[in-house]
Write a structure and sequence with these properties.
about 350 residues, mainly beta, Porin, 16-stranded antiparallel beta barrel, about 50% strand, disordered N terminus
Length: about 350
């Protein structure tokens, strides 16, 4: 009942505001195309001669975003973006509607987004990390939540130190938009900037699963907690760290997923910067089990490299990646992964 009441209140004020926003006849509408492409060449350096038939070395065009942004007036804007991605299982490309949203600013410090939107789970970390085109942030990479979803979010800036955001979302992501059982993901985030170059963020969400086709152990409440701290020193360097904890991952009883991510960048010039990152992914051990439930994926990874930005619209990065699996109770461990990548992003 409280969820329904919240939605009705937001809708009521939105309608009232829209009637005022559409009367802005002095604003010249503007728009621009969104075209962004992620590509790479990677070489597999893993020592897998005894456990695999081939090494994963290839040219790859991983993703292309195609869309359009439009400003109706100074308070209302819209965006449509299609995600054309590569399916590794089939080796073919497929297209999804990634973003189809309206953003409305009824007053200076309040922004409301609705439709197929980007949730606020890891947007702060993603902007701070800055290398989305070749490696996702921790909660995105390890599937703590989708990067786009159907729903509504509201962001409010109380002052120059504190802002907050609230969201009600389907929770299934942009590739699965059918909501059959009335489950919603509810999120709340708080961002604090106590001084100019320091950012602190706390985030929480929860999601039910009432799918009647599932057994009770698959219908638990999933809770996500994320904390982030980042510091930028002028245009010289930035360092950040985050802790992510998801209780009952994908609504499975007792299966928790958690870990840390630390990253930093040193900027030599407008065109060249070096970066590094360490991820630690772990899971808990279920009752009467020998291994952690996610032991085949748990581990520690690190990434180092440098980026060259010849012009504003083009980025090139040479980066090395290594992943060490955690299997402390088995004599035979999974072979570590080791890759070198040349990654490319271009946009226009």
């Amino acid at each position: 009942m409280r969820k329904l009441f919240t939605i009705v209140i937001i809708f009521f004020f939105s309608v009232q505001g829209f009637t005022q926003s559409f009367t802005d006849v002095d604003f010249d509408t503007t728009g621009k195309a969104v075209i962004k492409v992620f590509s790479n060449f990677h070489a597999d350096l893993s020592d897998c001669s005894s456990e695999c038939d081939f090494k994963n070395t290839a040219f790859e065009l991983k993703r292309a975003y195609l869309g359009y942004n439009h400003n109706f007036n100074d308070k209302l804007s819209g965006q449509v973006i299609f995600d054309v991605g590569l399916y590794e299982e089939s080796g073919r490309y497929g297209a999804f509607l990634k973003i189809a949203s309206l953003s409305w600013k009824p007053v200076k410090d309040l922004k409301i987004n609705g439709g197929m939107i980007s949730p606020k789970m890891f947007k702060t970390q993603e902007r701070f990390w800055g290398y989305r085109y070749f490696y996702k942030t921790f909660p995105d990479e390890y599937r703590f939540g989708p990067s786009a979803d159907l729903g509504i979010t509201a962001e409010y800036k109380f002052n120059k130190f504190i802002s907050a955001d609230f969201g009600i979302l389907n929770g299934e992501g942009y590739k699965n938009v059918v909501l059959n059982y009335g489950d919603f993901k509810q999120s709340l985030g708080v961002t604090i900037t106590p001084i100019k170059d320091l950012t602190l963020r706390l985030y929480y969400d929860n999601m039910n699963n009432r799918d009647t086709n599932l057994v009770e152990d698959q219908k638990q409440i999933q809770n996500t907690f994320i904390s982030f701290i980042g510091y930028k020193f002028k245009d010289i360097f930035r360092i950040g760290g985050e802790y992510n904890y998801q209780k009952q991952h994908e609504n499975m009883k007792g299966e928790d997923l958690f870990g840390y991510s630390f990253y930093g960048t040193y900027i030599f010039s407008e065109k060249i910067e070096v970066f590094g990152r360490v991820d630690l992914l772990n899971s808990n051990k279920l009752e009467e089990e020998i291994e952690n439930w996610n032991y085949k994926k748990d581990g520690t990874g690190f990434l180092v490299g440098f980026q060259y930005n010849p012009i504003k619209e083009v980025k090139l990065a040479l980066n090395y990646r290594n992943w060490q699996y955690d299997k402390p109770n088995e004599a035979k461990t999974i072979t570590p992964k080791s890759f070198i990548y040349v990654s490319l992003e271009f946009m226009f």
